[in-house]
């Protein structure tokens, strides 16, 4: 533990800066570093953390049971609350492809169950033996309707 004036003198001798890294700590923690380089590293770290928004995928089949559906729905909600986009896919095996309506029902149920925190960015599309839909999280967890009118309440 050094007095502030002595730490500043040491920093000036080395041609560096005295930077406070933990102001809440008792005693306050400071480092002798090149401030420009320190800021660059902090910005680089923040950019790396912001890049966490990724595309997640949750897969269903038309034979997915109710409990499994609810479990997968909980995972979708978890991904959306973390800010990730979610691709919901329904796979058809063998002759199941003739029951494409059941796959559409599953995607409609997922869209309805997550409408409070996500919007459908890409509607149901068929790609080979797969039916897909893309959900995008909405900031603040609320979907804003473009046609909705604002209502102010007077007290």
Automatic annotation (TrEMBL):
Residues 2-49 form the Translation initiation factor 3 N-terminal domain. The keyword Protein biosynthesis applies. Gene3D superfamilies: Translation initiation factor 3 (IF-3), C-terminal domain, Translation initiation factor 3 (IF-3), N-terminal domain. It is found in: Cytoplasm. GO terms for cellular component: cytosol; membrane. GO terms for biological process: ribosome disassembly. InterPro entries: T_IF-3_C_sf, T_IF-3_N_sf, Translation_initiation_fac3_CS, Translation_initiation_fac_3, Translation_initiation_fac_3_C, Translation_initiation_fac_3_N. Its main location: cytoplasm. It holds the Pfam family IF3_N. Residues 54-137 form the Translation initiation factor 3 C-terminal domain. Keywords: Initiation factor, Protein biosynthesis. It comes from the Bacteria. The keyword Iron does not apply. GO terms for molecular function: ribosome binding; translation initiation factor activity. Monomer. NCBIfam families: infC. IF-3 binds to the 30S ribosomal subunit and shifts the equilibrium between 70S ribosomes and their 50S and 30S subunits in favor of the free subunits, thus enhancing the availability of 30S subunits on which protein synthesis initiation begins. Belongs to the IF-3 family. This is Translation initiation factor IF-3. It comes from Candidatus Bipolaricaulis anaerobius.
């Amino acid at each position: 533990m050094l007095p502030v004036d002595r730490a500043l003198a040491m920093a000036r001798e080395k041609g560096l800066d005295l930077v406070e890294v933990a102001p809440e700590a008792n005693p306050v923690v400071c480092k002798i570093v090149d401030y420009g380089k320190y800021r660059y590293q902090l910005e680089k770290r923040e950019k790396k953390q912001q890049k966490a928004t990724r595309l997640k995928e949750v897969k269903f089949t038309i034979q997915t049971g109710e409990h499994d559906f609810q479990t997968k729905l909980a995972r979708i909600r978890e991904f959306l609350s973390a800010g990730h986009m979610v691709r919901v896919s329904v796979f058809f095996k063998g002759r199941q492809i003739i029951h494409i309506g059941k796959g559409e029902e599953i995607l409609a149920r997922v869209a309805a169950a997550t409408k409070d925190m996500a919007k459908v960015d890409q509607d149901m599309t068929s790609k080979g033996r797969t039916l897909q839909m893309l959900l995008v999280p909405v900031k603040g967890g609320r979907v804003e309707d473009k046609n909705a009118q604002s209502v102010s309440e007077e007290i």
